[in-house]
Amino acid sequence: WVKDFAALGYRQVPNLYANLNVLKDPPYPPQIEQRLEQARANPDAPKGFIWLTVSWQTRPTEDPESKAKAMTLVREIANKAAAVGWHVSIYPHTGDSLGTARETLKFLNELNHPNVKLTLNLAHELRNGHADDLLAVVDEVKDFLSVVTINGADRPEKGKIFGWDRLIQPLGRGDFDVFPLLQKLQAIGYTGPIGLQCFGIKEPPEQHLAESLKAWRAYCERLSK
Questions:
Q1: How confident is the model at residue 1, as a pLDDT?
Q2: Which helix (H) or strand (E) holds 149?
Q3: DSSP letter string over 7-41?
Q4: At CA 184, angle to CA 183 and CA 190, rounded to 5?
Q5: Which whole number is the average pLDDT over 17-41?
Q6: How confident is the model at residue 60 (pLDDT cuts 50, 70, 90)?
Q7: Could you tell me how many helices (H) and strands (E) the chain has, helices first?
């Protein structure tokens, strides 16, 4: 069914999702090198990004030496990506060393590399208690923002952690209002890709993708007004 993405109304952006973990050997998968080599061999193809989750410690222990090693490796990947016109977008992932956009922002300010950006992932921000201050988060990270992922979701009750089945639903479902986030992205002049998070959704892809696209078009109509 992947070949039907375009027919459903979606546009695919070249990317690779990978994990960097300094506690593993090797610390990142060979697929990164392979994907960048493919990009090098096809210079006229659309440019993309490496989606990178980052780990260097077992929470809550802080390990400055391992963090420094993680930064060295991120720079290494970013330099290789820059050589083929790609960039690195760090993907905050709950449970990893960089689990939220704010944690990633601190890392990026310290890293200070022009080819390393940030992904704002709605589901992971909600999982980490940022339902009420999400728009403030956008303002804080806007200078690094290169990718956004959205989906339908329920708003977590204060002090509660919802499972992914409630935090990742087809767009338009759930009681968390995604529209203010889209308004904020429009207000800050964000022009990068907005991806649809589908992890764990059980319905047939043709069904939930069509449902989400219908909701997306409705949001776009509201934004145009």
A1: 52
A2: strand 145-150
A3: HHT-----EEEEEEETTSSSSS-THHHHHHHHHHH
A4: 100
A5: 97
A6: low
A7: 9, 6
Torsion over CA: 195, 196, 198, 199 (sign)? positive
Q: How far, in whole angstroms, is CA 39 from its chain's centroid?
A: 21
Three-class DSSP category at 125: helix
pLDDT at 163 over 70: yes
* pTM listed for this prediction: 0.94
Nearest to 212 by CA among 138, 149, 156: 149
pLDDT (tens digit per residue) in 73-122: 999 999 999 999 999 999 999 999 999 999 999 999 999 999 999 999 99
The answer to whether 156 touches 97, Cβ cutoff 8 Å, is: no
Q: What is the CA radius of gyration of the chain?
A: 18
Q: What is the C-alpha separation between 124 and 149, in angstroms, rounded?
A: 10
Whether the CB-CB separation of 114 and 76 falls below 8 Å is answered with no
CA–CA dist 220, 61 (Å, integer) = 43
Q: What is the pLDDT of residue 204?
A: 92
